[in-house]
Design a protein that fits this description.
Number of helices: 23
Shape: elongated
Structural class: alpha/beta
Radius of gyration: 29 Å
Largest sheet: 5 strands, parallel
Strand content: 5-15%
Distance between the termini: 45 Å
Strand order of the largest sheet: 2-3-4-1-5
Number of strands: 10
């Protein structure tokens, strides 16, 4: 937390300073510390309280507004310094609190009184107000974000690999000396998205496993890697809580054909080594486009599985909300959780529903004011990738012509990959897989069926298999005869005009 500690100290150092000569003095005595559960917010408050700079007042969630008024009034009138700490301020001003507005006004008026005193004497009074919350933008009302109130805020991130290793060392796990550094390094590398509190739980669970194994505690029996593994199995990272994760189980080998698509996606996540590593800049996003029913979602799942990234899958329509501001908030929260769980992939299916043209000419969601705000939020989040780490965006659409042109700018969707109708090899793989799943007779010729389904999408081929025997009029008919009849009765939904449209659009996009 060294950078965050330095920022806090910069704020604290302005308490005994005359603001003479300052261009824009920070008169406010209040600051917010925010971050996910387990990132160290309460711990920081305890450290601030332990500085003995002044009398410590801790605001409780059940304090009345009149009590809080007294805290501020007394602190302002006293000659000695006062530290007012509000841990989890949402317990007072959260949206589900019945007296929220009164509490917001009370805290705001208290901060205003301190700021007015600072302006009068050209230096801050000796009253420090520190509050914590999960997310500054979502949890702190605009009324309290105004200048002179809680305009200063510091975010505590989920620790990166180096930070995790420092935290693990701080707890002094009883590893054997000859493997101590190796175990710390391995555990730090394996705990993506774990907070400091999560790591403490892992070591606690590992210690419990150690005690069960050795019986009575003894320094002659160090903590082993098997103990650590048991701890990891029992502790899930906080950043993954309350997320509708859809862990993919698909591998490249599960997808027949599509070799060019696979190679293109594998190249995207490749990490160059040697002299080229510093010269190259990995893409932030990839857009998969093409006819419906052609394994775009399955391909995205395989990409996440094979890269060992955490996977956040969402349909564009699921993010749209009738209430003003809810869609943007959902998008911000999605990216926030993905950053905390990095390295991760965010997969947007039906992407055109939230990324439609803002001109309204395409008829997508972007033509509405809500859609415009959703798209703007999405673009803002993607533009912040250089600061937020290993978050990769994968999007899929059957209607690429509806997408807003801003998505084509460098640094957003840098790669465009066309996912065509399945070739013969892919169709044969589908028939083979469905034969195993549904128990087809052994006389089924998958290669011949693949030849007869030229021009069908993968979803149509799967549907032919699912319905063939259900609809069969003659239960004694040979399996191949039943499947061929099912093919003949199933129309191709992807036309030549549609394929030509995708080809023309792809050429315009690349140009």
């Amino acid at each position: 937390m060294q950078r965050q500690i330095n920022e806090l100290n910069e704020f604290f150092n302005d308490f005994d300073v005359e603001f003479e000569g300052y261009t824009t003095p920070t008169y406010s005595c209040g600051i917010i510390v925010h971050g996910s559960h387990g990132t160290g917010k309460s711990m920081l408050l305890d450290h601030i309280a332990a500085t003995n700079w002044g009398r410590v007042v801790r605001v409780a969630y059940n304090d009345k507004y009149s009590t809080i008024q007294t805290y501020f009034k007394t602190a302002l009138e006293q000659r000695s310094p006062t530290i007012i700490l509000i841990d989890d301020i949402t317990k007072l001003i959260g949206k589900d609190q019945s007296n929220r507005q009164v509490m917001v006004e009370t805290i705001g008026e208290g901060l205003d009184a301190l700021t007015n005193k600072a302006r009068q004497q050209n230096r801050r009074p000796h009253v420090l107000v520190v509050a914590t919350c999960l997310d500054y933008l979502n949890d702190i009302p605009h009324a309290l974000q105004r200048p002179g109130r809680f305009e200063e805020h510091i975010a505590l991130p989920v620790p990166d690999a180096q930070g995790r290793k420092e935290i693990i060392k701080h707890h002094k796990p009883t590893f054997s000396a000859d493997v101590f550094d190796q175990y710390v390094s391995d555990l730090g590398d394996r705990t993506h998205a774990y907070t400091g509190a999560d790591l403490r739980k892992v070591l606690y669970r590992a210690t419990k496993a150690w005690r069960k194994r050795v019986g009575s505690p003894s320094k002659t029996h160090p903590l082993t890697w098997d103990d650590v593994v048991k701890g990891l199995q029992e502790v899930r990272p906080t950043a993954m809580h309350d997320i509708n994760l859809k862990p993919p189980t698909v591998r490249w080998s599960d997808i027949g054909g599509y070799e060019e698509v696979k190679v293109a996606l594998q190249r995207v996540l490749r990490h160059p080594t040697g002299p080229r590593a510093k010269m190259s800049k990995p893409p932030k996003g990839v857009l998969l486009y093409g006819p419906p029913g052609c394994s775009k979602t399955m391909t995205a799942q395989a990409m996440a599985t094979e890269s060992d990234f955490n996977f956040f899958a969402v349909k564009g329509g699921e993010l749209l909300n009738m209430y003003v501001g809810e869609t943007e908030r959902s998008i911000r929260n999605l990216f926030k959780r993905a950053r905390e769980a990095s390295p991760s992939i965010i997969f947007f299916d039906e992407f055109d529903s939230i990324a439609g043209s803002r001109s309204g000419s395409g008829g997508g969601s972007g033509s509405s004011s809500g859609g415009v705000q959703a798209l703007t939020t999405l673009l803002t989040e993607m533009d912040g990738f250089e600061r937020i780490g290993e978050v990769f965006v994968l999007a899929a659409t059957n209607k690429p012509e509806l997408l807003d042109s801003a998505l084509r700018r460098p640094g957003r969707f840098d790669e465009l990959i066309y996912v065509p109708l399945p070739d013969a090899k892919a169709r044969e793989a589908i028939f083979t897989a469905k034969a195993r799943e549904l128990g087809f007779p052994i006389d089924v010729d998958a290669a011949e069926l693949a030849r007869r389904t030229e021009g069908y999408s993968g979803a149509e081929v799967a549907r032919i298999c699912d319905k063939a025997f259900w609809d069969a009029e003659d239960e004694m008919a040979p399996a191949m005869e039943v499947l061929i009849k099912a093919i003949e009765k199933t129309p191709r939904l992807v036309t030549a005009d549609m394929l030509e449209h995708y080809r023309e659009w792809g050429e315009r996009f690349r140009s």
